[in-house]
Design brief:
There is one protein chain. The chain is of the alpha/beta class. It contains 12 helices and 9 strands. It has 3 domains: 88 residues, Helix Hairpins, CATH 1.10.287; 130 residues, NAD(P)-binding Rossmann-like Domain (Rossmann fold, 3-Layer(aba) Sandwich); 67 residues, no CATH class. Strands 3-2-1-4-5-6 form a 6-stranded parallel beta sheet. A 3-stranded antiparallel beta sheet has the order 7-9-8. The longest helix is centred in the first third of the chain and has 38 residues.
Length: 338
């Protein structure tokens, strides 16, 4: 009894690799011994191998059974040790799956995918952003980085979680920043002072720029005056937080009904949206582009940040132009295929 207890204790401390090798050797040796003891019963080594596995897993099916005393002794040995060893393997597998799930929930599991979205600093706005991304690109992978120790959206298998300081290289590496499609830095709402919130966002953006300058980075800014402090970091896009909401509210109050327009443009879930239009070789001027797009059911909005191009219809389209249009998803796909 003491021997069995000591053996069990030793097996429980085995690494997964050692245990796997031990089980393979145990089954192979047992199958070989069984075949050597009763070649007439099993007729082939594979049959003895099959018999060992079924004996360990289910105490056998009865299609093969030992007929000699040595064979029956081996059967008893498999009952005592084989079933216990197989149970230990199954336990290790379940333990491994549980550990993966636990690490995923705690945010300690490294993300190994690519072309994913990284969203930094959890808040209700992040939940909305995740829903927006998945509504438009349901197969996308999203990695949330936050200093909390619990996955905020564990029920969504496309959403992964990394726990830690998002300004640290190790944490960004765990999130796969070098392979990411884009990164979005939201303001940390747990900080009370607006300047400190933007300061933390600046630190995070600097780390991303240093580690992965090719990744498109969008940063939420609490105060518009802080944007100039980000110029040396080369952030691709800025989104104003409280200032933007206040201005939209005032616009809605002054011009009744335009909140529906803003809501449609801000969400891909309904209504028309903003898309980038590939430049057609036949378009020489903005007027050509405007008329060509209008025929397809789209409205030319801007060239990059220049919203005044409708007053420059006779101007030639520059080689580095990025034209943005307003239309529905079907029209955008049709224009893209032209």
């Amino acid at each position: 009894m003491l021997f069995i207890r000591l053996l069990s204790s030793k097996l429980l401390r085995m690494s997964k690799t050692t245990l796997t090798v031990s089980v393979v050797l145990f089954v192979t040796v047992s199958a070989t011994i069984a075949y050597l003891l009763e070649p007439a019963t099993f007729s082939s080594w594979f049959n003895s191998f099959y018999w060992v596995l079924t004996t360990m897993a289910t105490v056998g099916y009865g299609d093969f059974f030992a007929k000699t005393v040595p064979g029956k002794v081996l059967t008893i040995f498999l009952y005592v040790f084989g079933i216990g060893l197989l149970s230990l393997v199954i336990g290790k597998i379940i333990e491994g799956i549980s550990n993966v799930q636990r690490k995923r929930g705690e945010g300690t599991l490294q993300f190994r995918g690519a072309n994913h979205f990284i969203i930094i600093n959890w808040s209700k706005k992040v939940q909305t952003a995740v829903e927006e991304i998945l509504s438009h690109m349901p197969d996308s992978d999203i990695v949330i980085i936050d200093e909390t120790g619990k996955h905020p959206l564990e029920h969504l298998h496309q959403v992964h979680f990394i726990s830690g300081d998002p300004a640290e290289d190790e944490v960004l590496t765990k999130a796969g920043i070098e392979r990411a499609r884009a990164a979005i830095v939201f303001g940390d709402i747990r900080i009370d002072e607006a300047s400190l919130i933007d300061g933390k966002s600046l630190l995070i953006a600097s780390s991303i720029e240093r580690m992965a300058p090719h990744v498109h980075t969008t940063v939420e800014i609490i105060q518009e005056k802080h944007i100039r402090n980000f110029h040396h970091v080369k952030v691709n896009e800025f989104v104003l937080s409280h200032d933007a909401i206040s201005r939209l509210a005032v616009r809605s109050a002054m011009q009744e009904g335009n909140s529906d327009l803003f809501r449609q443009l801000l969400s891909r879930q309904y209504g028309d949206d903003i898309y980038e239009a590939k430049r057609n070789a036949a378009w020489r001027t903005y007027g050509d582009a405007f008329r060509g797009l209008l025929e397809q059911g789209a409205t030319l909005l801007s060239d990059r940040g220049d919203l005044g191009i409708n007053r420059k219809l006779n101007d030639p389209i520059p080689a580095d132009a990025k034209l943005y249009i307003i239309c529905d998803e079907h029209t955008a796909k049709k224009i893209k295929e032209l």
